[in-house]
């Protein structure tokens, strides 16, 4: 029987089909191959051995990474030092104002606003504990008072006056140290008594003396106008004492 004439009539016999030739589209995008491209092996044993040889693209001098080739966080300067805040100098200035006998004006040659801002916030916090929300009032008054002293002092000193507004704000703010202490003591002293007014008077005199000495030292020619500078300072600190008393 000839099976070649009827190839599809018998079960179990398949005729092989012809394969079409593969054609490449000339418009298809081609991807460039990089011979220097490194492939990471997914083998666990190979990954542990090759992890030390892969740099992940980090430069060898990049600070903040551990290792022998990188820096460490211990070499970084403190944050306050980077911001220009000297806490030791602020503490020395604060303790210097608390000395009622002698005020060292040399410490206040380098003016700063960090200490006065902290003192104003402390006074506002003590007033908040007394039931008075006066943070904005304290900051506003000290700015206006510093501008007032700045204009008055330079008018009195004339061409010899070398006081700028930044230094004036620093000195007026640091002279608030006795007022901050008074606001803290007012929390435990009964209000309305004669002791409160005596403490307020002594605090105003203390602040006025400290601020006047610091201002007059800056211009020797303004020493003859010490009483006028002291009068302006005493008006300023009387306003702050009224915030505490009432």
Question: Any overview of this molecule?
Answer:
This protein is mainly alpha-helical. It has a domain of 159 residues. It is 51% helix and 0% strand. Helix 5 crosses helix 6. The radius of gyration is 40 Å and the shape is globular.
Write the SSE topology:
Layout: H1 44-50, H2 79-82, H3 87-97, H4 114-129, H5 135-157, H6 165-174, H7 177-185, H8 194-218, H9 226-245
Concise description?
The chain has 246 residues and is mainly α. It contains 9 helices and no strands.
Approximately how much helix is present in the residues?
40-55%
Mean pLDDT: 77
- Biggest sheet record: none
State the secondary-structure class. Answer: mainly alpha
- What order do the helices and strands follow? HHHHHHHHH
Number of helices: 9
Question: What are its keywords?
Answer:
disordered N terminus; mainly alpha; 246 residues
């Amino acid at each position: 029987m000839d099976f070649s004439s009827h190839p599809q009539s018998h079960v179990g016999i398949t005729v092989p089909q012809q394969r079409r030739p593969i054609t490449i589209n000339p418009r298809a995008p081609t991807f460039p191959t990089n011979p220097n491209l490194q492939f990471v092996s997914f083998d666990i044993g190979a990954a542990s051995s090759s992890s030390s040889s892969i740099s992940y693209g980090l430069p060898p001098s990049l600070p903040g990474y551990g290792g022998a080739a990188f820096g460490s966080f211990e070499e970084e300067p403190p944050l306050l030092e980077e911001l220009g805040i000297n806490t030791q100098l602020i503490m020395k200035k604060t303790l210097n104002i608390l000395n009622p006998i002698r005020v060292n004006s040399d410490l206040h040659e380098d003016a700063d606003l960090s200490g006065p801002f902290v003192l104003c916030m402390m006074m506002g916090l003590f007033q908040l504990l007394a039931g008075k929300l006066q943070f904005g009032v304290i900051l506003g008054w000290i700015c206006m008072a510093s501008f007032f002293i700045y204009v008055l002092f330079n008018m009195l000193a004339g061409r010899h006056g070398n006081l700028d507004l930044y230094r004036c704000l620093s000195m007026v703010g640091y002279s608030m140290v006795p007022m901050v202490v008074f606001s803290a003591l007012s929390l435990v002293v009964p209000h309305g008594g004669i002791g409160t007014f005596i403490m307020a008077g002594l605090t105003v005199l203390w602040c006025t003396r400290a601020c006047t000495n610091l201002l007059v030292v800056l211009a020797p020619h303004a020493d003859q106008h010490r009483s006028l500078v002291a009068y302006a300072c005493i008006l300023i600190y009387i306003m702050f004492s009224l915030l505490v008393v009432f």
